[in-house]
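Re: the request from the purification team.
They wanted to know what the chain is likely to look like in 3D before they choose a buffer screen. I agreed to run a prediction and write the result into the notebook, where they can find it.
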Amino acid sequence: MELRRDPISGNWVIQEDRGGVRPAHGSCPFCPGQEALSPLTIYSHPNGDGRWQVRVTPHLRPLYRIEGEAQRRAEGMYDTMRCLGAHEVVVETPSHHTTLSRLTAEGVAQVLRAYVSRISDLKRDSRFRYITVFRDQGVRAGQDLEHPHSEITATPFIPRRVVYELRSLQLHYTLKERCLLCDVAAHEIAEGVRTVEWDDQFIAFCPFASRMPYEIWILPTHHHSTFEEDLCTWDRQLQLARFLKSILGRLESVEPSFHLVLHTTPNLNAKFDRKDQWRTLEDDFHWHFEILPANVPQSTSYSLKEVFYNSLRSEQAAEELRKAGAGED
């Protein structure tokens, strides 16, 4: 495998010779008693009876390899490098059939605590410029193993969409000396038509230009740029856990398959980062979750791949989600 950079779009693309076919599994490698199938434990939290409640392990077939250096090189005018990085799995619960929304608030908080621990640890490695936390729920979302889990990747580059966000938020701050997402949150709370739920700590809303039906963003109502610094206490983790459970419960009542992605600050200690490029990052960036339902047909016309098409207005989607029942503890 290697990483190739598209000089036009700026995208980094993983290319490999094996065609991306994943090996079939017999026994679930994430169930208790099957730890030998993924023997290295990176992080673990016990459940009180000597067993684990949350466990983090390297991915069984990682997209990125943690050993060595990126070995950036040119092939004529093109740029390539090794698939350097980390690829980890957060096993969210010992239960094979309990989704994240059906865990207790304390159980979800332990998953968030694992995120904080792993992001903080991976950012200590100066080879990695960005840490991504994501979870795919449902076959339509590409979930390859049924057991509830999230994934974490560390990469020597910042994903293109995050770069666009960084630049957009930085420009807004340069012009107005305010955080763009703080302005968005205040506007959505004031209007109330696209909000799904909010309290004095967090807000969930369907974005004004949602890319697909029932897209939801979750962010803190008070400004904070960095997820792992904001969520460093148990009380804060528990607050977000209750809020996230409620939002996922609402979403699953209308669309059970989705992608959840965390957007937080890049690693400013990375050896290839230009620290002066993000000098206002603490003030202009605002961490958030983006939840994208997997309800778009797999085959769409070329024009719809270039410009997102959403068949449900954000205001109507938010109204339906407000009416939807939240998950129960």
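For the purification team: Residues 89 and 151 are 5 Å apart (CA to CA).
Please add any questions underneath this entry.
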